Amino acid sequence: MSHTELDPRLAPPFPQAALPVLRNPQLRKNVAHATDVIQGKRAMLVAEKSDWQELRSAAAAIRAHALENLGTYLTQFEERCTAAGGTVHWAADAAEARRIILDILRAEGASEVIKIKTMTSAEIQLNPALEANGIHAYETDLAELILQLGKDEPSHIVAPALHVNRSQVREIFARSMGRSDLTDDPQALTAAARSYLRQKFLSVPTAISGANFLIAETGSVAVVESEGNGRMCLTLPRTMITLAGIEKVLPRFTDLEVMLQVLARSATGERMNPYTSLWTGVTPGDGPQRFHIVLLDNGRSDILAKKVERQTLRCIRCAACQNTCPVYRQTGGHAYGSVYGGPIGAILTPQLMRMEHAQSLPFASSLCGACYEVCPVKINIPEVLIELRTQVVDREREQPVRVFDAMYVGMRAASGIFAAARRFRSAQRLGRIALLPFTGKDGWIRSLPGLGARWTATRDLRGMPGQSFREWWAERKDNQQQ
Amino acid sequence: MRASLFITCYNDTLYPETGRAVVKLLERLGVTLDFHPEQTCCGQMHANTGFRAEAYSQAKRFVRLYRDTEIVIIPSSSCVAMIRDQYPVLFEELGNEDLRRDLQALLPRIFELSEFLIDKLGVEDVGAYFPHRVTYHASCHGLRGLHVGDRPFRLLGKVRGLELAPLENLDRCCGFGGTFSIKNAEVSSAMLASKLRDVLTTRAEYCTALDNSCLMHLGGALHRQFAGMRTIHLAQILASTETEPAEEFL
Amino acid sequence: MTPADSRSLILDRISHATQRPGGNTYEHLPRAYTHKGALEPGDCVHLLIERLREYDAVVDTCTVAELPACIAKILQANSKHILVVPPGLDPAWLAAGYDWKIDQDLSHAAIEACDGVVTTAFAAIADSGTIVLHHSAAEGRRALSLLPDWHLCILRASQVVETLPEYFARCTQPPRLATYISGPSATADIEMTRIKGVHGPRFLHVLLVRD
Q1: pTM of the model as a whole
Q2: Is there an interface between B and C (3+ Cβ pairs < 8 A)?
């Protein structure tokens, strides 16, 4: 696995980025296995929940309501968190968030930090920025540790290392921990990670986390996890820094009764994840006595302003859409060129890039709708994909290059043809003649030039029949009238 | 009963035998069919590829052509889903109140073929005979867009001689996705290969579906691989009888 | 740009983005999901025990009168001798013959060195097999139930609710701190194989007191 930073600004277009993965059977096997397992567990636990659809409706409505009133809830969160001893920072973009975190760490005199898995920190490319300033970040989530030691990047929101199998983990750990004695038994590998990190938890005085939810009513932050590395980071250090997107806020504490139920089932196929932690500012005698939270915009308020796209921000990062997506199953996450892969990434990443980059991602979907069906907050991902495709095409319309793009020219021509049945009939006749030289004796086409070659690379195409349906209908009508 | 057939652009051009089967089947069941000669395309390809302005004009055309029609039958679930799910949004955005009203009145009168048979005609046994082992591929738009549920299975279950072979991972996309199969040809092909493994495991003679688009994709690969299995639209199975077996391409 | 400017910039953008009226008020959000469970109290406790055992937690039950003796029995059976306890734990439960470290600002190293920890809990949720800690004086600060490898949690049957919403209904005030524990620390990060015991306590022992 080569190490390439996941940066949507530099990533190749999706069809191209997918190629190396499609030629890597081991990786595809790892991804298919992992997504199959999670999907199976999710399906079982959703089936046992007779009020699942009601929970989804409530979750979607709570998230939508929080977004409609985001300003109110964020300022309320700020006020309550501050009153409880926390310090609230606002970051308009990634660079500002990095600067704020670096300033806090410098003031703490930190040379090391321990980190809980946070996709938002990968979004703002935090680790490289810390390293460049002489601060080493220790990833403490097992999957993130595997990736950090293996110089790899996350490929899944919930299980970021699901593309790596046990023998690869063994190699990485043996090399970087100097543990040639390790077997590829997951139990042994997990134990190795435990002892590798134990001293760090007990000695590093500063930690960085993400947030699953912010509670406006109380100014509290909630983090869900499985391993206990989160609890270690949230409890033992002197100083805690949380990085959270501004969309993470929930109106009230009680809303967790909905969100926790849908999140655990959707994300890991559990009734509840092993550990959920909730804290409010600082509590004398318990846990970090300095608490900073960085509220990150980084394009989110732009998404909020758009009617169809706003629902993207309801996302609670459960990755159910990734697990069910037939495209993601084939390509894994890296092909999306962003820490957010799969269907949610296909809509979120280009929007976070303000549609300046990652324009191929909205097209990286067959619009099969499986993502929408499993989404616990009912994000109509296909609808947003189509909206973003429209924006990409509308930009193309203004570019002179459009006259050289076969797909663009073809779509425009087809539109003219569909505008009148007379033209459509002529096009059918012309098409029949044009395809004739490519059509074999058995009536099938095995090879086409141009765009058609992309079809015939793996599939044949039935040649055009001698008579269209409308021709047959007209003929039949004539015969009946005679 | 009188109904109008919207055959769809690709069935018209590439799969006329499906249209003929719909005519034969419905006339056998006592339905008088009309065919509006001005029909072309519902606009799905344009809408789904991001050409919204073009999709608008096709959507407008469709509603104007059919607004006074009693019943419209469409043998393609993805085109029905386009009309039901995307037209209202298009018209709202266009701000065309008249068209929106016409569409709202028209929508309850638009049926995908299996919906029409079960919900409108109230038949499951259409008197078909098709003595073959068949597997059913659930197209994504039929499954998750229209929620056709078990309707196709109820129809297939009453076809005499037919042996239904269940398909694993029924809810998984075949990878067609319209222009997706061209824009992301390699990924689409990988999805197709995975679907094909499940389809071939059934050892069926035929793979059927509500949509010829999926079947074009699956059938193209089956033909390329000399797999022996063939694809056939549900309408053709339902139209088939002892005296008049299903009409097939070559 | 100073942070103060970013604050108003972001809030301005948000206010501009959300000026279109509409949407439900908080009171009108749909909440048609199950709030109250349907089980009798006894069955509810049974469900909790079943769920906890699914998570590989060990569960014992006793009466209020038997409690101190039962704690001692469990400690003996599990060979736990040095135990850390929160300052608010009932002193009557601390059986003689064990080394009880009462948490008065103990260092992390001192807590880590103990064989185990004994705490109470705020509530338990049967449906998901969840132990809820609000970190009161008898539940202990967060580090206490985290660092030792073995956690004995004393739970009264009357604290058991069936559903998650029932727990929230019992919270008259939102807690300042809370930890929800649903089974021991675990990971599935390597090939989705569930491995018990990563960083949190590897062994959870629950003593249910019939009250």
Answers
A1: 0.96
A2: no
